[in-house]
Amino acid sequence: MVTGNESLVTVDPVGKPKNLTPEQLQEIESKAEGIVKDLVRADGSEALSIEDRIGNIGIQDQKGVSSNMALLQEKMGKAFYSDGKTNASE
User: Residues 50, 38: contact at Cβ < 8 Å?
Assistant: First the structure.
């Protein structure tokens, strides 16, 4: 039997990215805590909706990284292969 003082799941802490400010880390932790609390209270289709929100976080992250990489590739291409340059050292 489970009482209100027992924990059903133990979650190990995740390593924090080193390139984020303390404010950014706090915002992420706050959002994550809110989503987890919503998920614990949810049932049925509401739980599925929250699980979709969690999955979309990773997708949004990947799109952001992909967009930044495309921009970097474009800038590097212009820097190294613009008109009049025959190689990267000119």
Answer: yes
Q: Where are the domains of the chain?
A: 22-81
The per-residue pLDDT for range 53-77, each reduced to its tens digit, is: 887 777 777 777 788 888 888 888 7
CB 39 within 8 A of CB 50: yes
**CB-CB contact of 40 with 50 (8 Å):** no
Query: What does each C-alpha distance from 27 to 11, 13, 21, 22 come to in angstroms?
Result: 19, 16, 10, 9
Q: Which residue has the tokens 């930044």?
A: 68
